[in-house]
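In response to the reviewer comment on reproducibility (Comment 2.3), we provide here a single inverse folding case reported in full, input and output, so that an independent group could reproduce the run without further information from us. The structure tokens appear first.
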């Protein structure tokens, strides 16, 4: 995709139909909902107020974010909590153009607190079903393994959801949490088992870790998509491999800035990735922590780089191409994006 600059632009990007492929549902937990769920579930929080929690949404690196992320996630206890969380996200994201979602969730963060994995899945799945009925949003759930936990824990989680995977309640597996020191190769056999269950495979790689983490996700885990992947640019041979194979990279611009992967949006490598011919998509990652939902990320990108509306529509097309949606749904979404472009 060629990137073209434009000046004097409007920002109609909330209306641009799009898919989101890199979204941690626990990362949509807004401060006011943290306190509402804590009260509902009788949980004492380590924060004095919503304002106190909001003041902590400044991070020096990935680990500083993860510490707060897990501290807030303790309020999620019941099926209704997960339903309410996902429903709030889906309504918000729909207002910013969301048409298809492949939603990450972290079961180990909940099962270690005694929350049953079916409780998590049932709440999220019910929210997705209702969002389809109300908004026409399609998608599914991607179960993420916490890479800094023992691989035996990942196997246990996968065994626990095997029947639901076969039944179609899950569409894939992913790998997240602290990256450095936990290379993809550790989870090679877990991913082999996931493929046996018919699940798609994605993984976070090349966010904190170097390009070798991306190579490991491709070679050992046989990943169909790479989440983040921005450090791939450090290895020209890897860049050429990604360009030739068109393995998608789910980039999260506001997240990268807030986690100090780059200091400013202007320094984000997205333009270089596009110029290199990589299949890049725009996503929000953990929007309640990083200052913007999916449409906000599109707007931030356009404002930072002066991309034309046509270039932004091409990025939305990338999100559809990179998704695991059926061919018929992809055709529908492409038609919606083309119609939006025709009105510009």
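Designed residues, in position order:
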């Amino acid at each position: 995709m060629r990137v073209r600059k434009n000046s004097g632009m409007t920002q109609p990007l909330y209306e641009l139909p799009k898919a989101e492929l890199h979204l941690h549902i626990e990362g949509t937990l807004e401060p006011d909902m943290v306190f509402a769920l804590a009260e509902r579930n009788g949980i004492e929080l380590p924060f004095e107020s919503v304002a106190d929690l909001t003041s902590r949404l400044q991070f020096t690196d990935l680990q500083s974010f993860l510490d707060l992320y897990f501290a807030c996630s303790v309020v999620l206890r019941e099926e209704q909590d997960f339903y309410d969380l996902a429903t709030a996200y889906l309504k918000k994201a729909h207002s910013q153009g969301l048409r298809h979602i492949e939603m990450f969730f972290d079961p180990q963060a909940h099962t270690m607190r005694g929350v049953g994995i079916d409780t998590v899945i049932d709440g999220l799945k019910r929210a997705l079903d209702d969002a389809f009925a109300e908004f026409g949003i399609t998608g599914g759930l991607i179960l993420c393994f916490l890479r800094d936990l023992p691989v035996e824990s990942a196997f246990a989680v996968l065994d626990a959801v095997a029947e639901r995977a076969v039944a179609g309640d899950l569409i894939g597996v992913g790998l997240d949490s602290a990256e450095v020191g936990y290379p993809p190769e550790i989870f090679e056999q877990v991913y082999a088992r996931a493929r046996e269950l018919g699940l798609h495979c994605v993984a976070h790689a090349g966010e904190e870790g170097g390009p070798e983490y991306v190579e490991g996700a491709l070679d050992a885990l046989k990943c169909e998509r790479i989440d983040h992947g921005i450090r791939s640019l450090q290895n020209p041979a890897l860049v050429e491999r990604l360009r030739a194979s068109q393995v998608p990279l789910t980039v999260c611009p506001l997240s990268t800035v807030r986690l100090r992967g780059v200091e400013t949006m202007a320094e984000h490598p997205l333009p270089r990735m596009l110029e290199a011919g990589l299949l890049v998509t725009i996503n929000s990652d953990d929007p309640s922590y990083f200052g913007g939902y999916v449409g906000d990320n599109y707007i931030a990108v356009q404002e930072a780089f002066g991309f034309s509306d046509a270039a932004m529509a091409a990025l939305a097309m990338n999100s559809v191409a990179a998704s695991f949606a059926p061919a018929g749904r992809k055709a529908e979404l492409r038609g919606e994006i083309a119609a939006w472009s025709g009105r510009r």
